[in-house]
Design goal:
Length: 183
């Protein structure tokens, strides 16, 4: 019934486009009147097709810092100066982009290893780590089809998409485009 273009961080306040197949706007709007719901729905429109994973064109972030505390003994500077210096350092030096669970499936993959494989552009290794199948022959359609059939039904969208592409004959280097949509 519901489909979406990408996953969101469960520890953030997010806004996301979602498609609801064959559901009237007024039925969805009822969610907004519920006091128990933390979800709000708006900007509804009818469309000819559903969203699917990978349709997302990008993200925008507003970062809000709350409850900032410093060790008063080690720092005599006001909090505003500390934050300004940190933001300036971020602008000059950038930041580490950590690879989280939402990027690589069910969480069975060691995300630091998947991230390292992607940075090395070792797509075969990244795919095997995400699928948690080190011995899988990525060129053997029968093995890939078997892995696809054995995949749990829920919570495996990333693994499903990768295996589906590989079983259609696309090689792991084509799958890299899927990985880039995850980053």
């Amino acid at each position: 019934m519901f489909s979406y273009a990408g996953t969101k961080d469960k520890r953030a306040i997010t806004c996301q486009r979602v498609s609801a197949n064959r559901v009237l706007k007024k039925k969805l709007a009822c969610v907004n009147s519920s006091e128990r719901s933390s979800i709000r729905i708006g900007n509804m429109e009818y469309a000819k097709s559903d969203l699917s994973l990978g349709d997302l064109q990008g993200n925008r972030f507003d970062i809000i810092l709350r409850e900032i505390h410093t060790d008063k003994e080690s720092s005599k500077e006001p909090i505003e100066t500390i934050v300004r210096n940190a933001v300036e350092s971020l602008g000059r030096n950038g930041f580490l982009n950590y690879f989280g669970l939402q990027r690589f499936g069910r969480g069975t993959a060691s995300t630091n290893k998947v991230g390292a494989a992607i940075l090395r552009k070792d797509w075969d290794d990244a795919v095997k780590l995400i699928l948690n199948k080190a011995d899988l022959d990525l060129k053997d359609k029968e093995s890939l089809s078997k892995a696809l059939r054995e995949l749990p039904r829920y919570g495996t969208q990333i693994e499903y998409n990768i295996l589906k592409r590989l079983t259609r004959g696309e090689n792991a280097y084509v799958v890299q485009s899927y990985h880039f949509s995850l980053l």
